[in-house]
């Protein structure tokens, strides 16, 4: 019996004797099955290979990024947010080993885990069990959980206050329950963690919004207008996305400018070609 892991997306499935017939995350139109076909591994195999390690990087006071090198699965970055004796792991990665657990415990451990959307569920249950932490997932994405656990808490509504200064917001778009994290960090201007519900593009002055990034399926204008209107009520100066792309300042203004440009492009008002 093994907890099989999809090699393409890195999401772990509940225990079974044989490999699952398919990965429901990857066969859905927002993701993809590798051109090499559906392949499976296990966390034990990843650790035994000695190929991977997690790089934990100090970003600023109270914030570390956590990323697997070399890249595994989608290659996202998780973030350890340290907020007044409350450590939150924002989003998750597949790889976890004793060295990772030791280093994070040296930083105060993990009190809770929160997920932006199903592509980053990875081995979230392994992380939750290692740190005895609850996992917060919006109930609108309940159907995408591939490994059930008593650690998972399905929350509802439009926002959830985990602690003063740490708020989850359901904004939808990429997934129905797509969630972002607002962290005030005892500063005048806060930080927004967006997974790839919002994606920082190559030109760091801009972001974009997509239903599917690998398959280039855009979101409709009314959805982007709604997301932009919701984000306009938040107080943030800086923005981190799932791939360690950062807008260091004026992030709120840049998100609004990007939404306006995106909408203008889809409504045939930005350019002629």
Automatic annotation (TrEMBL):
It comes from the Bacteria. SUPFAM superfamilies: Metallo-hydrolase/oxidoreductase (SSF56281). InterPro entries: Metallo-B-lactamas, RibonucZ/Hydroxyglut_hydro. Residues 75-231 form the Metallo-beta-lactamase domain. This is Metallo-beta-lactamase domain-containing protein. It comes from Solibacillus kalamii. The lineage of its organism: Bacteria, Bacillati, Bacillota, Bacilli, Bacillales.
